[in-house]
Fold this protein.
Amino acid sequence: MSRRYIVTNDKQPFSDAVLIDERTLYLSGRIGLKPGTTEVPGTIGEEAHFLMQDLRRILELAEMKLEDLVFLQVFSPDVTLWGAFNEVYRQYFSDPMPPRSFIGSGQLLFGAHFELQGIAVRDTAAGQD
Amino acid sequence: MPTASTRAFSPGLKLGDTIYVSGHLGVDASIGKPPADISEEARNVMKSVQATLGEGGLTMDDLVYVEIYCTDLSLYGAFNKQYVTFFHKPYPARDFIGVKDLLFGAHFEVMAIARRHASHAKKELSNTR
C-alpha cells in the first residue's frame, strides 16, 4: 500500500491531490482563476475553461485523465450559471459522463463562480499502466 | 463503528481500510451555540474529527480528503491557523466552501475521508509550474 502526495505549492495548507495505492486520486477543490494570478476571468466561459484545464493539469501529475474521474462535486454561488457551466464542461468529456453533484453554495474564495472537486480511479482494465 | 445515537447518521463509517467521516461541528449540541472564540471553535471541530478517526484506529495524517464548510470566508486565515496544527506535511487534499447556514450557528463544518496508512511513508511529488 502506498500514498503519493501531489503538491505544487507547499505554502498552502493542503496538497493538490493524494494518490492511494497508485490507483485512487482524491483531488482538492479547484477554481478557474487566470493562471498564475488570483483574478477571476472576465467571462464565465473563460473561468469554466481555466477550471477544467487546471483540473486536467493536476490529474496529469498523477498520470491520469479527465475520463478517470468517478465522482465530481461542483459548487457555485449562483445556480443560474448551471447552463453556461455545462456548455463548457461537456467539451471536456465524452459519454459516459462521470457522476456529479451541482450545489448552490455560499461565497467561494477569490470571488470564484465555480469550485470543482473530484475523485479519480486509474483505469487499469483498459491496458494503461 | 456507529455509536449509540438518536441522530440519523453515524459519526463515521469504516469500510475495510476507508473511513468516511460525517460532517462534524465545533459546537457542543447540548450548549446549542458556538464558543465566543473562533479559534476555539476551529480547534473543537478538528478535535471532534480526530476523535472519530481514533475510534476507527486512524489518525489525522490518514486523512486523504477534507471538506470544510464555512459561513464566513473572512475566517479562512483563523481556521487555517488551527487546522495545520493537526497534521504533518504533506497535507490531505481539501476543499473550503462558503455556505449560508450551518446547524447551531456553527461557523465551520468538517467532513472527511481517511485511508489506512500502511506504509507510514508519505511520498511527495513536487512540481513547480
In short: Chain A touches chain B through 35 residues (CB under 8 Å). The mean pLDDT of chain A is 93.
